[in-house]
Specification:
Blueprint (H helix, E strand, L loop, with lengths): L7 H13 L13 E2 L6 E11 L3 E10 L6 E6 L7 E4 L6 E8 L2 H4 L4 E7 L6 E8 L2 E2 L3 E2 L7 E6 L4 E6 L2 E6 L11 E5 L2 E6 L13 E8 L2 E10 L3 E2 L3 E6 L1 E7 L8 E8 L2 E8 L4 E3 L12 E9 L1 E13 L4 E5 L14 E2 L7 E12 L2 E12 L2 E12 L11 E7 L6 E8 L3 E9 L4 E10 L2 E8 L6 E8 L4 E8 L2
Antiparallel strand pairs: 1-30, 2-3, 3-4, 4-5, 6-7, 7-8, 8-9, 8-10, 11-12, 12-13, 13-14, 15-16, 16-17, 17-18, 17-19, 20-21, 21-22, 22-23, 24-25, 25-26, 26-27, 28-29, 29-30, 31-32, 32-35, 33-34, 33-36, 36-37
Length: 488
């Protein structure tokens, strides 16, 4: 039977230890960069989704600007070399920020998906949408009747729509079954930036969604805010997750895995840091590297079934050098905790680059593909480039693998000494270790080949500061984790 690991953060951390341990099983790295647009005009702000156009496949929509007076929206099959199609274009008008929502067309007949976008065609920036059905795209319609400036549009694939309107965070929902756009709600007003919406719309592991997050400036500081929704009480009161001197570039994770990871840039003392926040466990993670410029972090969450279902995490950042920038991406499975030395330079360019995005791609054979796409300055224009990586989804029969069973910590919480026990059902190479929440190894309790049987190890945390630690029991195939709370 497949079992879901309880939290994306724990799972991401767990697979970090697989990578860094002698038991780790290797995989391929990211491919070489490929240009997907021309460099004769500015190509920016791509979004890639699985949609049904001429044929069901992955399509990319993006902005294309031949000059400063006009911006068009184009689209193409991401995996094909065909020429792009024009979605919206008018001389002197800016069509920007395409966002896609797939609908439940099995219940509604011919409606397949919506494309929302921003446009200044009416003399102010407004939000419009077009619907794709069996006759192609419908004529544009305005999202609301409000004539106030609207920016920072963002949609998830479950009908949730957020945007900025006169420094207010706004929310609306497209019912993907009835195709009715439900009431617009003001999430927060005043001094708000970087709205983001969680990429799910069901109860995920006990977490009520949707949730909208944003940055709010208060008294010369930045607050990371979140407002949740549940079926019983509607929109709950906003919560403050984090307060710092300056925060930028907030976003929820993308992908098909657990959706509750927030990432942003945080300026502290004299440098910028990446911050990840787990809404499920209310825990903050700050990787141990910094820079003089923001990182624009993007985190991807996915699910890879290898023996068990593992939640994977990948973090992509912009890293600024003396006279250039590069896209660096963490190894699979531990983007939250990776040291910068573990990141891979995937852009491999002397040009300026910006705004990485990691997206789920095709499944071919046993392989789930990931797409890391960014904007790169070529010939004084922004060109879209990407790399891909993949993981094999083939399952291994668990009956042929040694199991790590019944991991226990007693007592827990603990002031100093505790016992860690587990059962091994057959001989296997095993590592039992303890890490802090930054990923730093604090103790290797046991390592080596063990015979089948019950094992109990004493552990003393007297020399460590109080807090939450992760106990990891692993071999090359199976991983078990538990939290250890050290209180003094």
């Amino acid at each position: 039977m497949k079992t879901y690991l309880p939290k994306v953060i724990l799972s991401v951390l767990v697979l970090f230890f697989l990578i860094t341990s002698p038991l780790f099983c290797q995989w391929d790295y990211w491919s070489n960069p490929v240009a997907i647009t021309d460099s004769l005009s500015d190509n920016t702000n791509p979004v890639i989704r699985y949609v049904s156009l001429e044929e069901p496949d992955y399509y990319m929509f993006w902005e294309k600007s031949p000059d400063t007076l006009s911006t068009a929206i184009y689209y193409k099959n991401f995996y094909q070399t065909d020429e792009p199609h024009i979605f919206m274009t008018t001389n002197g008008v800016h069509y920007t920020n395409p966002q896609l929502i797939e609908t439940s067309y099995y219940q509604s007949g011919d409606t397949l998906f919506y494309v929302f976008y921003e446009s200044d065609e009416e003399g102010y920036n407004n939000i419009f949408y077009r619907v794709y059905n069996e006759n192609g795209f419908t004529e544009p319609r305005a999202l609301t009747e409000s004539t106030e400036e609207k920016t920072n549009l963002l949609c998830n694939n479950f009908g949730r729509i957020v945007w900025m309107e006169q420094n207010r965070i706004m929310h609306a929902k497209l019912n993907i079954y009835t195709h009715i756009i439900e009431e617009v709600v003001v999430i927060d007003s005043g001094n708000c930036t970087f709205p983001s919406v969680i990429q799910a719309d069901d109860d995920w592991m006990g977490y009520d969604v949707p949730a909208v997050a944003w940055i709010k400036e208060v008294n010369d500081s930045s607050r990371i805010m979140v407002r949740k929704y549940n079926q019983q009480n509607g929109w709950l009161e906003p919560e403050v997750l984090f307060t710092g001197s300056q925060c930028l570039n907030l976003s929820f994770c993308t992908g098909i895995g657990p959706p509750e990871i927030l990432s942003w840039d945080y300026f502290n003392d004299t440098s910028w840091h990446v911050v990840h926040y787990d809404l499920q466990d209310n825990l903050t993670y700050i990787p141990e590297f910094d820079r003089n410029e923001p990182f624009y972090p993007k985190f991807y969450s996915g699910i890879i079934p290898v023996t068990r279902w593992f939640d994977v995490g990948i973090c992509s950042i912009v890293y600024t050098h003396a006279d250039s920038t590069d896209i660096y991406t963490s190894p699979f499975y531990y983007g939250v905790w990776a040291l910068f030395e573990d990141y891979q330079n995937v852009s491999k360019s002397d040009n300026l680059v910006r705004y990485p995005k990691i997206i789920s791609g095709k499944v071919i054979g046993c392989n789930q593909y990931f797409i890391n796409i960014w904007e790169e300055q070529v010939n004084n224009h922004w060109q879209l480039k990407y790399v891909t990586a993949h993981e094999c989804l083939s399952m291994v029969e668990e009956k042929n693998l040694p199991s790590l069973l019944d991991l226990r910590i007693n007592p827990n919480p603990v002031s100093e000494e505790t016992n860690i026990s587990f059962l091994l059902d057959r001989p296997s190479d095993v590592v039992l270790s303890i890490r802090d929440l930054s990923g730093k190894l604090v103790s290797t309790v046991a390592s080596g080949k063990l015979n089948a049987g019950q094992y109990v190890y004493e552990w003393n945390g007297a020399s460590l500061p109080p807090g939450i630690y992760i106990v990891i029991l692993q071999n090359c195939s199976v991983v078990t984790t538990k939290k250890l709370i050290l209180s003094k």
